[in-house]
Amino acid sequence: MITLADFDTYPDFPVEGILFYDISPILADPARFKEACEALTPDAEIDVVVGVDARGFIFAPVVAQAMGIGMSMVRKKGKMPGELLEADATIEYGASELVVNPNGLEGKRVLVIDDVLATGGTARAVADMLERAGAASVRFAFLMEIEGLPGRERLAGYDVESVVTVS
């Protein structure tokens, strides 16, 4: 079982006042990485997995492959070509402009994978883009959730699963 002890922590990174939870120890251990991917895999019908830039990209393709389905990406603006949907995300320590290619999302049951649910700014922006793309449903899987921040509240109405919860 993945626990808080599997993460390294770095205070005041990337800015003062933030405690950064590093997933590198999980990635360095093949058994732990496999366990994390399995824990992120839902017991639900999913048509496509969406990985969120950047650490969601690590887990999403493994989960999609294990489920035998395709994958899409949410990237930071300026990193993908083509006709894209855009959204602004406000996060703990700044803001980010995100994009997704809407092709292949209409009518699909989508699983969004990211590493951390904190304020919910990124996840809410992703949900909005996927709904504008015509997704039939959107659910979320996070490696870690930080309680006491409004992430889960901002995702009210969505299925949200977290492998580890930090208070």
Please describe the structure with a list of short key phrases separated by commas or semicolons:
167 residues; alpha/beta; Rossmann fold; 7-stranded mixed β-sheet; two-stranded antiparallel ribbon; 5 helices; 9 strands; 37% strand
Task: Name the structural class.
Answer: alpha/beta
Number of helices: 5
Shape: globular
Largest sheet: 7 strands, mixed
CATH architecture: 3-Layer(aba) Sandwich
Order of helices and strands: EEHHEHEEEEHEHE
Q: What fraction strand?
A: 35-45%
Terminal Cα span: 18 Å
> Mean of the pLDDT scores?
95
Oligomer: single chain
CATH class: Alpha Beta
CATH topology: Rossmann fold
* Uncertain parts: none
Q: What percent of the residues sit in helical stretches (DSSP H or I)?
A: 25-40%
Neighbour order of strands in the largest sheet: 5-6-4-3-7-8-9
Structurally, the number of domains stands at 1
